[in-house]
Amino acid sequence: MRIAIEHTTHYHFSPGIQNGLQRLRLTPRNSQGQSVIEWAVHFEGARVQLEYDDHNANRVTLISFEPGTREVSIRCEGVVETSDQSGIVGRTAGYLPRWHFLEPTPLTQVGPKVRALVARLAPGADMLARLHALSDLVADAVTYELGHTDAASTAEAVLAAGHGVCQDHAHVFIAAARAIGVPARYVSGYLLMDDRIDQDAGHAWAEAEVEGLGWVGFDISNRICPDARYVRVASGADYRDAAPVTGIRVGSSDETMHVRLAVQQQRVEQ
Fold it and tell me: Which pLDDT does position 252 carry in this prediction?
């Protein structure tokens, strides 16, 4: 399947910004079941300072804002060819040992609510089956609903709220998987939806390392393993490690942001 993506983020600053830096993880890489046919990132009101691969082997673009600018646009567009690998990513490039993905982060700390969730998980030797069961437990415990959490919500806080979005599902799953001794990580990317092209935001899911298979994806929000409709962009220990955009700004008291995202299947002429 070929998936065409156009993703634009537009910022308006009032008054104009003095200085700003942003770290962008918006460029997908080739991996098992995914091949980047073409990809480009365009900027208005900003310029590229550096491009590099980070410790998770994510492609990172560091940009700076033009002094005094009021409008900044970041537009990504490209085509990615995908195939259904039943969620199996296998071994992926990176510079971190597996134990790194067993360590808690501020967003994935294991507390009483995560431990209570894990206690409901039936024992068994088949770890893949247990992880599927864990995915269902998380989805049952956290109803998908906007407006209850934000980017700083921890796994414990999400379980306390009982509502959240894909980012929250991923953090709870990651915390619980680590609690049972399974390395787990966060993934940001795109999802081709069946009922629409225009979307409000990208998607997020989790991956866990399974012996004999390597890294395997779990989209808790949709209760499936990622298939050919998914485009994997970045991964890390949690959202902060794989966020599409992070940065700092100086000199603006008011900021508005508008995101436009279109994800659609590209027909291939025979």
Answer: 65
Question: 32 CB contacts (<8 Å, ≥6 apart)?
Answer: 85, 88, 89, 90, 92
Spatial contact of 256 and 12, defined as CB atoms under 8 Å apart: yes
Q: How far is CA 63 from the centre of its chain?
A: 20
SS3 162: coil
| Structure-token pair, residue 222 | 């949709």
Q: Do residues 170 and 187 touch, judged by C-beta distance below 8 A?
A: yes
For the segment 148-170, the average pLDDT, to the nearest whole number, is: 97
Phi-psi group of 87: left, alpha or beta (phi > 0 → left; psi -120 to 50 → alpha; rest → beta): left
CATH fold of 88-242: C8orf32 fold (3.10.620)
DSSP-based three-state secondary structure for 141: helix
pLDDT band at residue 17 under the 50/70/90 scheme: confident
Helix (H, G, I), strand (E, B) or coil at 151: coil
Q: What is the pTM of this model?
A: 0.95
Which fold would CATH assign to domain 2-82+245-266? Answer: Immunoglobulin-like (2.60.40)
**Across all residues in the chain, what is the average pLDDT?**
94
Cα 190 to the center of its chain, rounded Å = 8
Indicate if the alpha-carbon torsion angle 158, 160, 164, 166 is positive or negative. Answer: positive
Distance CA 149, CA 160 (A): 11
- pLDDT for 193: 96
User: What is the widest separation between alpha-carbon atoms in the chain?
Assistant: 60
Burial (CB count <10 Å: 0-12, 13-18, 19+), residue 101: buried
Structure-model confidence comparison of residues 255 and 43, the more confident one: 43
